[in-house]
């Protein structure tokens, strides 16, 4: 039995949505980060355009795992261009040294970004996660290049047998540096408590401007990739925030489908998953193209980099 309180809430949400749809042509943000709460059913055509992020490299996958992994700055530039042609608006990048090991070298990031810029207008988002065990100063290097976006992980989490350390003082330092260089953070959420820490940064003035979250689901040690967990996360976001979902390994495709239908955005790519289907290796572009195709069938339009810049408030202070 549905209670009167729930009925009241459902009516309120439906009313908010009716108002929003009438305001939408003026560019009003949605009244909640989850357009489907309490069954406020609208066509996916009315949702904001889908931003596809291609996580091209990562820190853990190796050339031995897949020959499709881009490693050199030129290869990263080429992979970004192919992902952009396939429908990606954001390239989330890490870099590797000449031996293929993960690096946070400013020079290598500069070279990779130059190779991307030569080829396409995709938004570049650098990693500040780096690889487990790197120092905060080492991880922060690419931020001083002033890229449009950078990741900001707002908590410590187990990565299998390793620990990805992010004490609060370091998170605040990362946020401060991003604001200083005009870099839009993407909050990397590996577990539910990290949303509260991210919102604390906003409350205490460490981060200003548009809020964008990435839910990374299915890391061993982090939160599981389930629809139930995703809904719990979305419902904690403040009005006007945007979110992306990244499922790890075999969770990538189902979480992408949920991201499209729930009004969020989607991250795919070899950092999170190297397979197109069981036993068949993928390229970054193939993974992006599949998300674009599914979105098309569901009547959700895909954002260009320029449209994604608008949606994410890039360039705003
Ligand atoms: Zn990454």
TrEMBL record:
Gene3D superfamilies: Aldolase class I
Signal peptide: none
Keyword line: Metal-binding, Transferase, Zinc
Cofactor(s) named in the record: Zn(2+)
Protein name, as recorded: 3-keto-5-aminohexanoate cleavage enzyme
Highest classification ranks of the organism: Bacteria, Bacillati, Bacillota, Bacilli, Bacillales
């Amino acid at each position: 039995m549905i209670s009167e309180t729930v009925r009241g809430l459902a009516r309120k949400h439906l009313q908010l949505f009716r108002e929003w749809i009438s305001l939408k042509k003026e560019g009003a943000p949605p009244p909640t980060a989850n357009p489907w709460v309490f069954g406020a059913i609208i066509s996916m055509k009315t949702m904001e355009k889908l931003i596809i992020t291609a996580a091209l490299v990562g820190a853990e996958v190796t050339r031995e795992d897949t020959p499709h992994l881009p490693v050199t700055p030129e290869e990263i530039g080429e992979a970004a261009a192919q992902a952009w042609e396939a429908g990606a608006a954001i390239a989330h990048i890490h870099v590797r040294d000449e031996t293929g090991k993960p690096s946070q070298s400013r020079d290598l990031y500069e070279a990779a970004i130059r190779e991307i810029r030569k080829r396409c207008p995709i938004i570049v988002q650098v990693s500040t996660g780096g690889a487990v065990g790197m120092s905060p100063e080492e991880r922060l290097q690419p931020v001083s290049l002033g890229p449009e976006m950078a990741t900001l992980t707002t908590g410590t989490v187990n990565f299998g047998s390793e620990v990805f350390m992010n004490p609060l003082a370091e998170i605040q330092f990362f946020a401060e540096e991003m604001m200083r260089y005009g870099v839009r953070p993407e909050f990397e959420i590996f577990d539910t408590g990290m949303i509260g820490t991210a919102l604390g940064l906003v409350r205490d003035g460490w981060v200003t401007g548009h809020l964008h979250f990435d839910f990374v689901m299915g890391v061993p040690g982090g939160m599981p990739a389930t629809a139930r967990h995703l809904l719990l996360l979305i419902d904690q976001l403040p009005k006007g925030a945007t979110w992306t979902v990244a499922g790890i390994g075999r969770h990538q495709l189902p979480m992408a489908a949920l991201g499209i239908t729930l009004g969020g955005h989607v991250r795919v790519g070899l950092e999170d998953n190297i397979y197109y289907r069981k036993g068949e290796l993928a390229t970054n572009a193939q993974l992006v193209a599949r998300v674009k195709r599914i979105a098309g069938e569901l009547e959700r339009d895909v954002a260009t980099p320029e449209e994604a810049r608008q949606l994410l408030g890039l360039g705003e202070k």
